[in-house]
Write the structure tokens for this entry.
Amino acid sequence: MSSGLVWIYVVAIFVVPFVATILTIMFGEMMGRRHVKRNGALDEGSISTVVGAAMALLAFLLAFTFQIVSDRLDTRRQLLLDDVTTIRTTSLRAGLLPEPYRTRSRTLLKEYVDLRVQLAGDVSKTQAVIARSHAIADTLWTFSEELSALDRSSESYSLYISSTNDLIEILNKRITMGLEYRIPETILWVLFAISTATMLGLGFQFGTKGTGSMKLYIFWSVVFACVVWLIFILDRPETGMVRLSQEAVFKLQEELR
């Protein structure tokens, strides 16, 4: 995703919920005022009960959705630490190999870490970094196959092969967790339906009571849009708006030099 598209996405996921919330509440208020004019006042207690229940359900669904993206953030953080540990271990175990595998492996691992540092500074390079990372991982695995063919009983070779396998596994997990796993569409559609119904009910309640105001609508819309914005930003780490600390990667880069 280019930097221009990133900013369009970041702005859109706030503006769209904000505008939609205001319009939905205002439409609900209009329905409430019209109902009072045609049919007279309604029982405020029953309206408050229904709207309160809808608000509680919406709050629960927002919390549930936020928990999904929050858990995935924690998983990404742990995978980053596992990645750093595995790269360091693979580099150390490469020292057990004969030349030219030792030097070539460590050179590739240094580049592997440099790619992560580059990505930390510019998320628009994501696809290029992924492609090169896969190429490096494939080359390291080719070394493993060649070493295995030389001596299947070597414990040193076995340790290197095991570390390389872990490195490839973590690479695939990080890509899947960061770029492929998303909030299920079913949850998003249910969230959309419940939030729409809730905002209509809230506006309807304001309309029947005649207590609505644009300042109140804007305040509530900003609050709701901020929550939705945070959920979608956490769901799309490639935007770079919520970044994991890369201090461990920077330290590893210094260690491998």
